[in-house]
Amino acid sequence: MKRTFVVLFLLLFVSTATAQEAITGFTPENAKKQLTLEKAFEAKLNTDNLDQWMRKMAAEPHWVGTDYGRENAEWIQKQFKSWGYDAKIETYHILFPYPKVRLLELTAPTTYKAKLTAVPVEGDEFTGQGDALLPSYNAFSTDGDVEAELVFVNYGIPKDYEELDKLGIDVKGKIVIAKYQGSWRGIKPKLAAEKGAIGCIIYSDPQDDGYVRGDVYPKGAFKNKTGVQRGSVMDMPTYPGDVLTPGYGATKDAKRLDREQAPTITKIPVLPISYEDALPLLEALEGPVAPNKWKGGLPITYHVGPGPAKVHLKLEFDWQLTPAHNVIATLQGSEYPDQWVMRGNHHDAWVHGANDPISGMVALMEEARAIGELARKGNKPKRTLVYCAWDAEEPGLIGSTEWVEDHKEELQRKVVAYINTDGNGRGFLGAGGSHSLQQMVGEVASAVIDPQKGVSIKERRSAVNLVNGGKEEFELYALGSGSDYTPFIQHAGIASLNLGFGGENAGGEYHTIYDTYPHYTRFKDPGFQYGVTLANTAGRITLRLANADVLPFAFKPWQATVSGYLDDIMKSCTEMRKAIEKHNNMVDKNVFELAADPKKPFVRPEKKEAVPFLDFTPLQNQLAALETSIQTLSEADISKLSMDKRVKMNQKLMLAEQALTSDAGLPRRSWYKHQIYAPGFYTGYGVKTLPGVREAIEQKNWNEAQEQIGVLAATLKRFHAHIDEMNNML
Amino acid sequence: MKRTFVVLFLLLFVSTATAQEAITGFTPENAKKQLTLEKAFEAKLNTDNLDQWMRKMAAEPHWVGTDYGRENAEWIQKQFKSWGYDAKIETYHILFPYPKVRLLELTAPTTYKAKLTAVPVEGDEFTGQGDALLPSYNAFSTDGDVEAELVFVNYGIPKDYEELDKLGIDVKGKIVIAKYQGSWRGIKPKLAAEKGAIGCIIYSDPQDDGYVRGDVYPKGAFKNKTGVQRGSVMDMPTYPGDVLTPGYGATKDAKRLDREQAPTITKIPVLPISYEDALPLLEALEGPVAPNKWKGGLPITYHVGPGPAKVHLKLEFDWQLTPAHNVIATLQGSEYPDQWVMRGNHHDAWVHGANDPISGMVALMEEARAIGELARKGNKPKRTLVYCAWDAEEPGLIGSTEWVEDHKEELQRKVVAYINTDGNGRGFLGAGGSHSLQQMVGEVASAVIDPQKGVSIKERRSAVNLVNGGKEEFELYALGSGSDYTPFIQHAGIASLNLGFGGENAGGEYHTIYDTYPHYTRFKDPGFQYGVTLANTAGRITLRLANADVLPFAFKPWQATVSGYLDDIMKSCTEMRKAIEKHNNMVDKNVFELAADPKKPFVRPEKKEAVPFLDFTPLQNQLAALETSIQTLSEADISKLSMDKRVKMNQKLMLAEQALTSDAGLPRRSWYKHQIYAPGFYTGYGVKTLPGVREAIEQKNWNEAQEQIGVLAATLKRFHAHIDEMNNML
Hints:
The structure is a homodimer of 730-residue chains. Chain A contains 21 helices and 16 strands.
């Protein structure tokens, strides 16, 4: 037993051994068994199931609250039961707006009434379901009835407003029109409202999402002129989930905020439109020609405004408490029933959602089916598996968030890790998550074969990175937001992963009526080869976490990555200082005014506050100290470890991620507890690493930046103590 | 007298003195006189003259051979005579093609006949002159009648064909359609023919030259959907000028090549079209979607082809010997009549040419008028001034080239420098030329005031550079080709300058029927303020060269610049070596194939020949030795120099540029004698510095590269000897 552990810990904490059979967290003997099990698992995966299940679940629209959505949940529950899982539906009662009135019209200098309807296309019967299709809108836009001059604000992100400042253009009292992309959509109305706009229109420009990219549906995969991207604009960077029950479960009898007080509903009405509807509006703008980078793919000269185009936007929603049905399916662990490995994917869609989310959902189900079958034949996982099919992800990660909030205390005690998937397609592995899991995920990626090229998915990912000028090494990306891992990692501090394939599945169907079975099987993953590859990848990861002798967390990659984040921040701080010095010098020399074209709008730039020298040493010292401890842990002679200690060690490993959270959470958004990863306050999905410090610097809030350095150092100190507690067990 | 010379040479060879009154090449006393003269000159400049003369000369189309063109030449001659110049017309007889048949039609899968006609616009009567307007065509396209499948080749430059190779697409036997821009237009049919294409269509894409840039004419300055850019496609990088008389003047009785043998007429027919005419052709293409960087501003998905679009292109020209009338106006120098300072601008246009070339022509005339007036009042220039109005620049720099070839021997003895101008507009100084003149031009730029901002044009240029992330210091750009300086500097080795203002004069009128007086005065230089500023700048440069006690050549800036060119080349060689090593390594690892999408065209890249280590030491040693001699010349105590030696020194200074030429010229294009500057063989206008060496490396012709290093080193040695002869006079 003792000798076993020497080898075991060496495998765990030192870098991956060379022999193919060596896998992190397993004794050599158990590694062999595990790899045999994984091969048996892989052999059971069948593309036909994915195909059939997608046909079934994506046959009709199934957003939260629909009968078809509930039927899907019940059907999923039934499937899980048939595979030997203990499956239940947990329902929350969430606020969900359905669009009653949607009016957008150009009222000057000419008139145009926006159609707001995508057309059915030949060869895709699903697009012809008429009134059954959810009208295009942005969920959690406030009600409103506004009329004002229009201003084109590019993507409507912070640097676009800097450009508007240079042009001397103010959006106060105006309605803005912004292109989709450049940030998560919810940032656009949030920022527009902060700048004083009274309404916001979002459209898909053909350059980013239309004919410029490729042939449009149904000839090709891309967005035709009538397609509209639906989507939530809830202020998720403040908190996701039900807008009325922040931080706790939206159970039937939960105390709720008044809707008028809900801070995550937008301040101004916002509506998404097609590029066909955007064209007359943009064409009617005058004022300065848009900066070159703002110009899109419509056959017009893009102007910024304001006006003479004037628009009238009227939106009314039916705000109802709506049931959201999460399916929770459990397969009890044979050795550690109170250690849960969790897997999840949402089941609700905006319309049919063949790609988003059903392509991921059917992969998860096939994975669960195969594992259930293996379990029935005597290969029960050692730890408990919990498979989840979330409802109401689309309007704001609501199903998963309410569930995590509701069960937070138990989850923080029991969950080893949460593995998320969502839409999936042909291409390369994209894997994000807690960097303590990077080594294990890399090992699994070495074991899974790419269905098109016959090499490992890791090798293919590496080839793509190299061709695009990136690194050869396998790395996890850092998680921001955008799917159901958010409540797990950001709020509960549970180590999480997000997995998916893509890169050869481009299209314009996202959140439109065109995300259908015919579109998916023509353009996204014909034959479901990558659906099965996702099941294979996520399933192996799940099984490794479930069966590992010692949980396969490795902190050296974590240390290297987090040190890199700090280096980044310090470098960007220095660059910001230099750039501001240069700028101020140029202002002093009147260079901007001398260079400016007197026939174009010009606002003389102001001098900017100099960037102070921040004291990063608390972070540098903590990371240096941590490095030593992590090195110790990875090199230690742990031959003296008893079985009892091993159980305790696993317990400590599970909880390590939670040591990276702080109860107070991030400034102005206490729901976000994690101190290493968060979605950006002004990017929405895009991650900000070391967010407290990084965002304070980006916002030039120097006092807060110094304060957050202290907060983060204290978190790292707690994490260090946690690592040292493990070292003390050795 | 002796003391004078100490100061004099210090001014000449050391950097510019700080006192405003100190100017390179003048004794303090003469500097004062010169600055007084320049002020008097400036005071005489009158925008009204420019306005009137443009109205006159741009009233009707006046391409070479037209009656209106001849009348303009005669009128210019008359003006010069009235200002006291000895003015004559020197006529050459050049081959010039006039379009008889222009047919372009889509023949499959649908049909479309190209209109090939720009429409008249309201508010611009000149655009309504109907048949008097020259039909749109590319001069020196060969006759042809071809029909074939179409291939879209982006800009049709070398790297675009590399991209086509990756897609496995060959243009052999096809007709290519290329966007204007990315290179000089003549490169497109040249390269297409080298690749086996049988026809070439060039169009203006709205992204580069149309509504994407700004509002179109007549609402704004940019190209409307019917505008077509005319222009020469003669193979000027081989030799410019008359295609039948390479290297010698196209006099009446000159021996001429057969047209069929003329190497600079294109090998395949080529026709320019509007984006209105291009749209149905591009829309009919299938095959791979164009790479992202190739996509333009038309509202379509750009495909590469080949086919199914098939086009029929038929072109026939009337090939006539046509008289080209150069106006040569001389003002005899009072002290050094055999030292000529030359000024030139062309007078022929494609259509009305209000901007190109009349805006530059009227500035030159106003400058000459003012100088003539000063001369009549006793301020005769010390050296002879020769003002030239060139004909037939548009079809291939023909008027100037024939004249230079015809008078080469005399010019090489007598010309101090040639100063060129061409189209001009609102904005910032752009000055290119021989770097031995950089110091003097910089001093003049300090003395001329920007009409919009009230600071010197040098200061404004510097502000623009800084705002665009460039250098604060004033620098000349290196001359490639594109206007009449080419025969002077590239062929005869005469120090040259090219001057113009721009940057706030964007538009789409270039070589179209929209380059008219109304367009010019609305969008290019309303009020002719920059026309007069150009006259002021070029006039002061001319007067300084004419009156300098010692010619204001300074070689330290030359040395620094040329050393920079060598550093560039060595660096790019190293980068090329590294890139090829990386590429070959990736080919070995099969990375490209692993990364490729199996559903898209893919050609496995080949390994490339490794870049050898070239021996640059001959150039490094020559430049190092030169640096010492140039330092000596600039620091020397030349107090012992006699008046006689001063005359000899001036003679040596005049001829220094010629020491940078070699009789053999560049490989495969012996007309180009200059060893420091040449237009690129595959860029056309774009300069290649140290061209023999640089282009051999770019073409991966390693033997030739090493050989050209030797040739260039020998040239630098001759130049060094020339500098040392001056040192020996000290």
